[in-house]
């Protein structure tokens, strides 16, 4: 079985182009970039999903952000640039950008995945955005990808650099709470979603019995970092409200 582009799907993808600010010469790869594996399996579209495009888009994204940070911060050591890049291209950041582009509205997932809220999952949205970048690279060129990525993330690079939010969130959280007590934050995995080869971990971080934040990621480590980052935001907002 092969997938075909209906008039309705083409019209929808044209609407997505307006959000992206990029014109594709054809819609074949953009369409594929928005097909989750669950939908492909459900529809009998063997191999016709977005994972290979995601793989390519991830590499293009890292190259663009690496080049940009290298040029923007000429005196920064390699370690700081690497940590800055990891925050800028993190699952949470990319998912938020995907939401700003309303990417979930165009994502094709299985009925079960849709009922479980898959179109709004950080993991699916970030993967889809990377796949769109992969499609953009193949349909257009590196320059078009770079322009798109920097329109999307360029301000974030500067904001994160200025705020120093690229410092390891778990370490930053531990330093923050130990100003008040020797008790350390505790991380608990409270939910695992998806098959063994494609799990999403949901983690909560507690301190002195209070839940400070919840996060998710493709690995336990990423989920813990996301939870710590959200905990730091929660504490900052709490301090600001005093």
Account of the 3D structure:
This protein has 242 residues and is mainly alpha-helical. The chain folds into two domains: 7-163, Ribonuclease iii, N-terminal Endonuclease Domain, Chain A, CATH 1.10.1520; 169-240, 2-Layer Sandwich (Double Stranded RNA Binding Domain), CATH 3.30.160. The protein is 60% helix and 10% strand. It has eleven helices and three strands; from the N terminus they run ααααααααααβββα. It has helices at 7-20, 28-33, 37-43, 51-72, 78-88, 91-100, 111-115, 122-139, 142-163, 169-177, 220-240; strands at residues 186-193, 200-207, 210-217. Strands 1-2-3 form a three-stranded antiparallel β-sheet, with helices on one face. Helix 5 (78-88) crosses helix 9 and helix 10 (169-177) packs across helix 11 (220-240). The longest helix has 22 residues, at 51-72.
The secondary-structure element order is HHHHHHHHHHEEEH
Total helix count?
11
Spans of 5+ residues with little confidence (pLDDT < 50)? none
Q: What is the oligomer described by this structure? A: single chain
State the share of residues found in helices, binned by percent: 55-70%
Largest sheet: 3 strands, antiparallel
Average of the residue pLDDT scores: 91
The CATH architecture classification of the largest domain is Orthogonal Bundle
Class by alpha and beta content = mainly alpha
CATH superfamily of the largest domain: Ribonuclease III domain
Radius of gyration: 19 Å
What's the end-to-end separation, in Å?
60 Å
Q: Report the β-strand fraction as a percent range.
A: 5-15%
- Gross morphology is globular
Strand order of the largest sheet: 1-2-3
CATH class annotation of the largest domain = Mainly Alpha
């Amino acid at each position: 079985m092969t997938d075909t582009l209906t008039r309705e799907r083409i019209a929808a993808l044209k609407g997505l182009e307006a959000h992206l600010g990029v014109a594709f010469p054809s819609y074949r790869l953009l369409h594929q970039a928005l097909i989750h594996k669950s939908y492909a399996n459900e529809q009998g579209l063997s191999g016709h999903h977005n994972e290979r495009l995601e793989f390519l888009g991830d590499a293009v994204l890292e190259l663009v952000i690496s080049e940009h940070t290298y040029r923007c911060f000429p005196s920064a050591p390699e370690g700081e640039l690497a940590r800055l890049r990891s925050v800028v291209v993190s699952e949470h950041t990319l998912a938020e950008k995907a939401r700003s582009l309303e990417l979930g509205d165009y994502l094709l997932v299985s009925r079960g995945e849709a009922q479980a809220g898959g179109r709004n999952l950080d993991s699916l949205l970030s993967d889809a955005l990377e796949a769109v970048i992969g499609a953009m690279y193949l349909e257009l060129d590196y320059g078009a990808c770079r322009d798109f990525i920097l329109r999307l993330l360029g301000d974030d690079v500067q904001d994160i650099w200025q705020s120093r939010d690229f410092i390891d969130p778990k370490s930053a959280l531990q330093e923050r709470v130990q100003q008040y007590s020797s008790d350390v934050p505790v991380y608990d995995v409270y939910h695992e979603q998806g098959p063994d080869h494609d799990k999403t971990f949901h983690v909560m971080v507690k301190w002195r019995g209070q839940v400070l934040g919840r996060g998710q990621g493709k690995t336990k480590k990423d989920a813990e970092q996301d939870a710590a980052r959200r905990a730091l935001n929660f504490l900052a907002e709490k301090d600001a409200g005093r």
